[in-house]
Design goal:
The chain has 238 residues and is of the alpha+beta class. It has eight helices and seven strands. Strands 6-5-4-3-7 form a five-stranded antiparallel β-sheet, sandwiched between helices. It has a two-stranded antiparallel sheet with strand order 1-2. It is globular and about 65 Å long.
Length: 238
């Protein structure tokens, strides 16, 4: 492996591993010695990467905007285009615009040949049947999930019957043909999936469930994986 390839691999490991990443973890991820990791960290810092941390504590990549343009293999470029185009097709307006902006920024950071490949990608995404229109501010809901704040809203089930729910928001998933909130429902005392197009009067409460979002989300996903193995399709809340 060339030195340049090794540095790129280390940068990717710093992005992927939980922060702060120890030299031991980085060495295992990249297949080099810890001494080489320390030396390469110094090299990256010299090139302009902002990397916090030190030996015995771990390292966190803060930014790398001054480094040379990113490089991707052709399949990675196609995957990025398809993923961002899919977000532009199915996401709420705020997130769709963010995906469009990200695609533009990515193009400006790539070498000319790869930027051309991104612009004229073979793969793309197009949906002729748009998801149901979301009736709440999805951006507010996403922020509440990040901040681990309990939210309340009025919810209509498939029969049109409405209930007031208070839930701990865990994640928003495009499930089947609609956006769904994966959450822990205080009313049902269990995990539930709520369609965003059936939610109204969203209110972010002062209640906090920090720092339980990630463990709860893992538990919910494990349950969904088990249901999938039994050929069960996750359904929206009753």
């Amino acid at each position: 492996m060339s030195r340049t390839d090794r540095l790129f691999q280390l940068m990717q490991a710093l992005r992927d591993l939980p922060s702060p990443a120890t030299a031991q973890a980085l060495a295992q991820e990249t297949g080099v010695s810890e001494r080489t990791i320390y030396r390469d960290i110094d090299t990256l810092r010299g090139l302009g990467a902002v990397i916090d941390g030190e030996a015995g504590f771990g390292f966190t990549l803060v930014e790398d905007a001054t480094l040379p343009p990113l490089g991707f293999v052709p399949e990675e470029i196609e995957a990025l285009v398809v993923g961002l185009k899919e977000v532009m097709e199915v996401a709420d307006p705020s997130l769709a615009n963010a995906a469009k902006s990200a695609l533009t920024k990515l193009k400006s950071r790539l070498p000319e040949a790869q930027a051309h490949r991104l612009k004229h990608a073979v793969l793309t995404a197009k949906r002729f049947h748009k998801p149901p229109e979301i009736s709440i501010d999805a951006g507010v809901l996403r922020q509440a999930a990040w901040e681990e704040r309990t939210v309340a809203f009025d919810y209509g089930d498939a029969k049109g019957q409405r209930t007031t729910r208070e839930v701990d928001p865990l994640a928003i998933v495009f499930m089947q043909s609609a956006h769904c909130l994966m959450a822990y429902c205080h009313l049902r005392k269990d995990f539930r999936a709520f369609r965003l197009d059936r939610m109204i009067n969203l209110d972010v409460t002062n209640g906090s469930f920090r720092p339980r979002r990630i463990p709860m989300l893992r538990e919910y996903k494990a349950r969904l994986d088990a249901e999938e193995k039994q050929s069960a399709i996750p359904r929206a809340s009753d």
